[in-house]
Each structure stands twice: as structure tokens, then as C-alpha cells.
Amino acid sequence: TLNNLLGLSVGFPAFIVLWQYSYSELNSDKQWKHWERIARMAFWWEWTDDGKSWQGYFNGSNATDFAEIIHIEYPQIEAFTRIIHQVAFDVNHTGLTPNITVRCEGPGQPNIMFREEGLTCADPNFFEFFSIPLRYGHASTVLLKANALVISEWTAGRYFADGNPLGQTLQINNREYEVTGVFENLPRNTHLLFDMVVSNASYLDYWEVSRPFAIATCYIKAAENLDWIDFENEFNQPEVYAGHWAVGLKAYPDGKGRTIVQPLNEVAFNRWNGNHFTAKSKPLLIIFQFVGWTI
Q: Which of 79, 104, 142, 252 has the most CB atoms lying inside 10 A of its own CB?
């Protein structure tokens, strides 16, 4: 009947849209190579002001040296990488402050200036660690230089129109950076959120000193599939915990914490302190899938 045909003409497209959207979002971060072997190093921290009532929170960031410590102490961890997002920039760790202005000027370049909010500072192996596709440059080398800058396709279009930006320079807060790579625009179904990445190569010595400040998002990659819960329990044993948390406990003697190993495919769905993205609602996405099937 006509009503049935009209119902199908509306219901089938709605099913396709809802199903594709929810399926994609529920599989966030599974597009990265070896995603099942990658985890974020987070923590739970709680404290008391009166010795009786405790308050606590989860934090998705960590100290800059922590991932490297885990990599050194646990042979089953083959690699680590770290990023600091723009809101946490400081001169000692990144050479920059959170208020960012980027200028493009010079022979053959347009005179353009923008305020930017999507910068990160990362380890030299960051693009290789995640296997983020690059339009220009090589993942193993794009962040090796101290003044290296890797930008998204969208950002390249803003500053350089349709030209090849490799070797061009941008002034970030009056510091000169060389464009060494261009990465494909990041998909919607990832917690990674940035348009420009500067190298931390000049600041590695500072990143490797233990300080009680959770400003870096730290990732580890296992040599083979690990049971992340067992791994988390292993280095939260009292004798191990005391060593890993020594600096933080000294700075905040009324607190206590637990290191959290969060599988990569779970990161996008947690509303934790230290996140630099809007968390997705897994229950809502599952409802979308259900609605799609029932239409």
C-alpha cells in the first residue's frame, strides 16, 4: 500500500543513518593500528581534609615521565608516547603558552594570522605510534627536528591554499617552526583532537623529570595482547605503588591514588578530568542502534 511504501521510504534511510553513525562511534579509536595493544595511563586520586571524609576523581592525564618509567620497568611494553594539549602548555615543557597566535608570512607566502586552539606538543614517535595517515612526510621522522610542526590537511588549506606546505615556515607566538608533515584530517570517531602538532624534541630532558603535575596524556603499547586489568593490578601492588607515587605523595601527603590502565577503545567514553575532548555516551549510541533496528 501507499502507506507501507511511505513508511519504508522514511524508515530505511533512518535505519541506515542511525546504524552507520552509532556503529562508527561505538568503534571509536579502533581505526588505529594495533589499537587492542594500546592503553592510556590515567589515575584515580582521592584526598581528605579532615581525616574522615574522602573526595576523589579520575584523571586522564599523568606526569610526563610516567609512561617512560613503565616502558623501562616492564619488558612487555614495547613503546610509549605522550602529548600535552594546548590548554596545558607551559614554557618549560613546550616552549609555548596556551594563548597561541600563528602567522604565515615570507617570500611567496600570504600574510595570514589566526588565533589557534588545536595545538599539541608530542613525542617524536607520536605519528608512528598511532599510524596516523600522512599526506606529506614520514611518520618516523616528521617530529624529529626541534622546530618541527605537523599540520592537518584542513590547516594546510587555511595557511597555504593548495600548495605543498613542506619546508614552509609558520610563526607560532613569534617562534619559527618548519612544516615537516601534513596528516589527514582526523575522523569523528576518535578521542584524538588537534590540528597542529609541535615536537617536544628540545624539551625531552624536562619531560623525563618526575613532577607531581598531571599535564600529559600518556599512552603505552604492549608487545603482544595483554590483560590490561591484570597489568594494572601488578603495578598497583603496595611496594610498587610507593615508588611510582613517591613524588605525588610527598607533595600531597593527605592523598592517595591508583594508576588506571585504560584500553584505547574505552577512552572516548569517559568523562574524566584531564580529557581534552567531549566524551561520547555509549548508552545513547546503543539506543540509537536499537532504534535503527526497530524503525
A: 142
**Cell numbers 610527598 label which residue?**
250
Q: How far apart are CA 56 and CA 49, in angstroms?
A: 12
- Closest listed residue to residue 69, CA positions, set 93, 41, 92, 91: 41
* 59 HSE (CA, 13 A, CB side): 18
Q: pLDDT tens digit string along 189-206?
A: 999 999 999 999 999 999
| Closest to 222 (Cα-Cα) out of 230, 210, 212 | 230
Q: Using an 8 Å Cβ cutoff, are 123 and 103 in contact?
A: no
pTM for this one? 0.89
Tens of pLDDT along 55-77?
Answer: 998 999 999 999 999 999 999 99
Which cell goes with 135? 599526506
138 C-beta neighbours (distance < 10 Å), count: 12
Distance between CA atoms of residues 171 and 149, nearest Å: 10
| Alpha helix ranges (H) inside the chain | 2-26, 66-73, 91-94, 126-130, 153-160, 204-207, 228-234, 238-244, 246-251, 264-267, 282-294
Sequential DSSP letters for 140-173: TTTT-STTEEEEEHHHHHHHHTTS--TT-EEEET
* Dihedral angle, C-alpha 153, 159, 162, 166, nearest 10 °: -70
